[in-house]
Amino acid sequence: MVLKVYGDWVQSVQRVICVLIEKGVPYEMVPISMAKGEHKSPQYLEKQPFGQLPYIDDDGFVLYESRAICHYIALKYPDQGTPLLPTDLKENALFHQAASLEATHFDGPAVAAVVERFYKPRYFHLETNEELYEKAIADLSKELDVYDHILGKQKYLAGEKITLADIYHLPYGTLIGEIGSDIIATRPNVNRWFKELASRDSWKTVIQETNKAWGV
Ligand SMILES: N[C@@H](CCC(=O)N[C@@H](CS)C(=O)NCC(=O)O)C(=O)O
What we know:
GO terms for molecular function: glutathione binding; glutathione transferase activity. Helices cover about 60% and strands about 10% of the residues. With about 220 residues, it is α+β, with helices and mostly antiparallel strands.
């Protein structure tokens, strides 16, 4: 049975689809409409108790949390598609270090900035709180200064090879540029790294599908 992704073309789902494409794993998207509140229905909450997108059903195995899903896919298909999860002990530890950077240094301020300038006006008909936006961008800028230092010494966040940790940054990193901030583009090593990631065929396909789904 083909792996089913319950979601829509939003950031956490994009992360999972990008990894499925990199690994060459067929999938079927089962649309869940956030606008209609389908992610808060009792039926959905039974599978994803936090009422967030996405979850997957892989032949009866249900899993939520986008990064856990990506990790599961990379572990299940080690010899298929792009290698994204190092098996060597130390390289694997460096992958977890890099993944932790995304979760603890990048995601918080990146999501906060995107909520203000993208989600609020586009989906919730609310005004951006510019003060909150500027604070999030200032916080993220400080983190990206450290990223720039790291990426000045190596090609990817975990070393010389791409891993899931790099891919985890794509959804919100892409939106940071779209909401009008140059904090990625003005840091040379971060810019070089992010441009290369965003130009991967997998991500280009995700963006095309997203634009198609939203009629952009
Ligand atoms: N940590 C979760 C976050 C999922 C998440 O924030 N999903 C958003 C869409 S990108 C969502 O469902 N938002 C609706 C809500 O939280 O009610 C994951 O990575 O899967």
